[in-house]
Amino acid sequence: ELDGKLARDEQKIQASIEAVKTAQKTAYSEENVAALVWFDNFLQRAGGLRAQLHALKGTPQDTDFVKQLVKAASVAFGGGRETDYPKVGVSPYSA
Predict the structure, then answer these.
(1) Which of 20, 22, 34, 47 registers the highest number of CB atoms within 10 A of its CB?
(2) DSSP assignments along 36-92, one per residue
(3) pLDDT (tens digit, 9 = 90+) per residue, 40-76?
(4) How big is the chain by its Cα radius of gyration, in Å?
């Protein structure tokens, strides 16, 4: 299931990359360059995660190793924190 979602997301990102590259040809933008770098980074991480998932298909799903790997993957994609603590920004009690 996760592999399928990642594959769909990779296709969407690839389509976005093509659209940004087309836009870059007519009107160069540093913002578009940054977006292309982010897209490329996402594709690399997603591809690595999918490779790990394929390697684990023969492994029993209740092992601690699999749980740790899924946790590590969620952290790699920015989903490591369950809450927003500590909050980012200015505290009302800062001096």
Answers:
(1) 20
(2) HHHHHHHHHHHHHHHHHHHHHTTS-TTSHHHHHHHHHHHHHTT---SS-PSPPS--T
(3) 999 998 888 888 887 777 666 556 776 777 777 776 6
(4) 18
Give the CB-side neighbour count of residue 46, counting CA atoms within 13 A. 19
Q: Is the pTM of this model over 0.85?
A: no
Go through the chain and tell me how many residues it has: 95
Query: 30-56 vs 2-26: helix axis angle to the nearest 10?
Result: 160
Cα distance between residue 40 and residue 36, in whole Å: 6
